[in-house]
Amino acid sequence: MFPTDPSTASSNGFGNLLKKRPFMALWIGQIVSQVADKVFFILLISLVAEYQEQAQQGFGNSMRSAAMVAFTLPAILFGSGAGIFVDRFSKKQTMIASNVIRELLIIVLALLPKQPEQFLILLLLTFAISTVTQFFAPAEQAAIPLVVRHEELMSANALFAASTMGALIVGMIIGSPMLNVAHKWGGDYGREIFVGGLYLLSAVIIQFMRSKEKRIADKQVAVHPLTDLKAGLRYLKHNRLVSNAMVQLTILYSVFAALTVLAIELAPQIGLNNENGEFSFLLGAAGIGMVFGAGILGYWGDRLHSKPLPLVGFFIMSFVLAMFTLTTKIWLGLSLSVFLGVGAALIGVPMQTVIQQQTPEYMRGTVFGFENNAVNIALSLPLAITGPLTDALNNLLGADEGGANLGLRVVLLGMSLLVCVAGVWAWRNTRHVLQDVI
């Protein structure tokens, strides 16, 4: 599968990438960092529960909501600004500094007494950790083209997409058990030491990344960050290929955010038990599908680059969302979720590759900052709208003879139609140039 002679290996296969030490350092470092992010989220939920035990009864939900706001708000507020910062400084050093700072903040978190009057400090530390995280993401994406060749970007993005979803699944699965083990071995500070150690390990691994990052000429660096922000907006306005790719990624993440809400109500209709948290199986199956789809693109990308991959991906997602309304079997529901993940990979990997290939090096951080901003907003709006809309339609339409909520079916069919229309619209805007790019 992996030729020993690099000259005979497929330019878009995984073989060459796995032989590149700089790429491996970046890839493994970001995996460790992303696992740390997921485990920190689980740690945060545990800490909030401990504060709730000490607080007056009736404030539990408010404390949980406040923690979630502190965790998610920086992604919306500072995504673009972090991208501008990344363009002005070394991507490698930015990632290392981000990990080290988060490790130090978590050490401070460990020393914080679990008393209700200290809850505000917990929120501030959470906000600070999440803010620093916003600098890691655009630096990581902007660093990929620095450690691989132009023709290897599709495979590299496929590998990153697969590992990102894998880190999400693994982090959520092992997070709680590992925190329990760390608490048993390390005492009161064990959990924080474990999470901080993951960030520190990521920083050490990324230190071994060697890249040919060009020094940006003084004339390319704006005097004021606001000027960089305006320049980035002008670039997206005039480069319709990049902006369209960003729109497609935003639609993709919006669908997944809405599905996160709907999965809780959809799970019982296909035979899963929500009391045991089995709705997560639907999301996990979609993650497995994304890993599988990314693997296909990574190894056979050179044979598929001329195909309308994003259009096929949108059609697959549209079909799956419509089929969910008719599904009553567990095996079929999970199979459809896997298929949904494959469609998502056909959109996400090529579009991420397009953005990296078409964006000049001195502006990649800014563009990826905009992308992270758009994605986080895309994740927030469906989470806020989908639930109330489904409840309203359920109350209005009721249920069918089998007990399935008709409102849920209407929402799924509406999403299916919107995804199909969005896919056709996006492809019409890019089909003349996309085949020459990916």
From TrEMBL:
Q: Which GO terms describe its cellular component?
A: plasma membrane
What does the UniProt keyword field contain?
A: Cell membrane, Membrane, Transmembrane, Transmembrane helix, Transport
Where is the protein localized?
Answer: Cell membrane
Question: Does the record bear Transport in its keywords?
Answer: yes
Entry keyword annotation includes 4Fe-4S: no
- Which Gene3D superfamilies does the record cross-reference, listed alphabetically? MFS general substrate transporter like domains (1.20.1250.20)
Where are its TM segments located?
24-45, 65-86, 119-137, 158-181, 193-209, 245-267, 279-300, 312-332, 338-355, 367-386, 406-427
Q: Which GO terms describe its molecular function?
A: transmembrane transporter activity
Q: How does it sit in the membrane?
A: Multi-pass membrane protein
Xref: SUPFAM superfamilies: MFS general substrate transporter
What InterPro entries does UniProt report for this protein, alphabetically? MFS, MFS_dom, MFS_trans_sf
Which Pfam family name is an example for this entry?
MFS_1
What positions does the domain Major facilitator superfamily (MFS) profile occupy? 240-438
Q: Which PANTHER family match?
A: MACROLIDE-EFFLUX PROTEIN, MAJOR FACILITATOR SUPERFAMILY (MFS) PROFILE DOMAIN-CONTAINING PROTEIN
This chain belongs to the protein called: MFS transporter
Q: Which organism is it from?
A: Aerosakkonema funiforme FACHB-1375
Q: What is the lineage of its organism?
A: Bacteria, Bacillati, Cyanobacteriota, Cyanophyceae, Oscillatoriophycideae
